[in-house]
């Protein structure tokens, strides 16, 4: 069998059916308008000390998860920070928890991604000013002590991690008594207070990190929670936004589904949260021109060598035919068709993929035609 790269002039099959988790494999192709909206929104948060809630809305497979992962890449955030001449943002991405204690699960998701060693090293030179800042913005002595311990290098790393995870027993807790931590975190109010103060400290004067960018993916799963947990999630988001008035950008990725639509959004996202939404970014089903630009861009990232046909290994009329036959579909469905087509052509040593080749596989490719 002919080598894939030699046959198709591509490093590998570029059509991912799920978003990449390896940052090096995350690229942005086409969809210029959506990319620009995210860049402007993030750059605004990098520059301006205010907190913002943004709702990202679209059908399943429209690219919301990909956007979250792409715009959490350090090099992408660094480029945006450089344009604004500010420090880089600190980014968190996680899916909405569906368990019995969603706020605790959100808290753990954030702690999981917290690089305490890096944070301590980054803030060491401003620690006295940071401690004064902590004292000035909360009267809760316990929460102040917890956050100071996060930034204080003299507190053993494993001790503060175990404490935040809630896995420290009463005997081990005594090791933290000397820094004012006398009890464990016990409820949603504690978790919200710790996260709020932590975010405010990480973005202190925009000196080390310019803003916090949080993406809550699969937010439509709130529809499967019971009323009590829907209340908890809404209250948590409201408290975070209220208690981090500066330098927080929160994205909610929400998929329109049989369980939740624009009309019944109010059942799950309360007025206290919806009133704080500053922008809605819509992931609409792409047009023919948008799909073709996306395809050309994507192929260029994986291209080996050069070819006159920017759609190679596909003939352009094959691309047009697939788009025409599929009707209005998501980018994931478009990728599925092209991925299967190139795999079948690879198995049968067919290249380039002409209309004649496509017709051989058409019934396998257009199985989800509307």
From TrEMBL:
This is KAP family P-loop domain-containing protein. It comes from Algoriphagus oliviformis. InterPro entries: P-loop_NTPase. SUPFAM superfamilies: P-loop containing nucleoside triphosphate hydrolases.
